[in-house]
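User: Could you check the structure of this?
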Amino acid sequence: MIVNLMRMKFSVFTFLALFFSSTFAVAQTDAEKDSLAVLQAFEKLKTNRAFLKELALIKEKHYQFSDFILKPILGDLNHDETVDALLVFSIENRGGGNNYDIHYAVFMQENKKWNYVSLFDAGTDKSEYFIGFQSIESGIIRGVKLQEDDESTGKPVAYILKDKEIIETSLP
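Assistant: Sure, the predicted structure tokens are below.
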């Protein structure tokens, strides 16, 4: 009976040790660390006057950055073998109205620092279509062009970064 109690006690402690070590692990993957660093760089960027001017927000009194769709897409944009990023974000309630516009901020990594490079406008609530990027592979940004009136079908698209601008290219 004492042996059974000892086994049960050992099993409970083993379970708890395994549970807590896997549940509260602090180690992050490189992608998680990069994503977090991009989000932190974007938080700083949201107060940058030049960035706000680029978004035509300098004189706006009523707007907000939405955290709902913040999502970094990681990959090498410029073939330098370092991870770069596109961060999708939206601005809502411009001018106090019920509206939104969607953008991608381009971040390049240099010496483990994330630098904002440019902006890509993906569409607004009044656009005929939206561009939804999905991945970056070998410098090619892949995504879909979604029609406003029929979001069930999307046309595959490809873009590249050229001279700090995201431009459409033919699908390889």
